[in-house]
Design goal:
Layout (H helix, E strand, L loop, with lengths): L3 E6 L15 H15 L4 E6 L7 H6 L4 H25 L4 E5 L8 E2 L2 H9 L3 E5 L9 H12 L3 E6 L4 E2 L11 E2 L1 E2 L1 H7 L6 H9 L4 E5 L5 H7 L5 E3 L1
Parallel strand pairs: 1-2, 1-6, 2-5, 3-4, 3-5, 6-10, 9-11
Antiparallel strand pairs: 7-8, 10-11
Length: 234
């Protein structure tokens, strides 16, 4: 069955695989091709993009920059990624709109919930940029919020690992992959899935979260189709 999903793409999804920074056209094109394949099947796809490949607000705040100012700079970075993704999607035949939580009328629409839903119903994908428009909120919280607002069937979080582990798999080679877990257990164990605000929002709105490895070719399409990959939080 066709689904409406909210897909979270970190800034790393756009970055050069060697340097980890900037926007790599080949990486973005591969991502666009996968999204195009499932869009053609009738799935409605809303995407929230991060901006860490360009600017990391929290780390800059930790280095002495004012936190609110750093977060606003991070929001602007997400707009750059959103425009790159729109260009890649349009180039492979997927009509796409960018909506931002901060007003930049020359390059994107303002975020309007009913307009976003209408775009999805019309067969367009929508890229949500600018976070929530407020500092101190992550793009994890943004995707939970947008998913609830557009009536998504699930939240999909694309990562660099296969799912949720009982420890950091990049530091502990013996970490075990968890195939399914409850919201409360994630919060109680402090597992690194999404921030606690996002987890709580998904729990309150009965939104399942699928965490998967986007570096594996085809996984983005599989996750959008609802195939059982990675970890399911519900």
């Amino acid at each position: 069955m066709a689904r409406r999903v909210a897909l979270k793409l970190s800034g790393e999804s756009f970055a050069d695989p060697v340097t980890g920074y900037g926007i790599d056209p080949q990486t973005v094109h591969r991502l666009a091709m996968e999204i195009a394949s499932v869009h053609a099947e009738g799935h409605q796809i809303g995407m929230v993009v991060g901006g860490g490949n360009i600017f990391r607000g929290l780390s800059s705040a930790a280095a002495g920059m004012d936190r609110a100012n750093a977060d606003y700079m991070g929001m602007l970075a997400t707009v750059i990624n959103a425009l790159a993704l729109r260009d890649a999607l349009e180039s492979v035949g997927v009509p796409t709109r960018v909506q931002t939580a901060i007003t930049i009328a020359q390059v994107a629409e303002p975020y309007i919930r009913l307009r976003a839903i209408r775009h999805l119903e019309k067969g367009r994908t929508v890229v949500f940029a600018g976070g929530t428009g407020n500092p101190y909120f992550t793009t994890d919280t943004t995707v939970a919020l947008r998913a609830a607002e557009i009536g998504a069937d699930a939240v999909l979080k694309a990562t660099r690992v296969d799912g949720v582990y009982d420890d950091d798999p990049e530091k502990n080679p013996n970490a075990t992959l968890i195939r399914e877990i409850g919201y409360m257990e994630v919060l109680e164990r402090g597992l690194r899935v999404m921030d606690s605000t996002a987890i709580t929002m998904c729990m309150d709105n009965d939104l399942p979260i699928r965490v998967f490895n986007m570096t594996v070719p085809g996984n983005v399409a599989r996750a959008i189709r609802g195939e059982p990959i990675g970890t399911l939080v519900r």
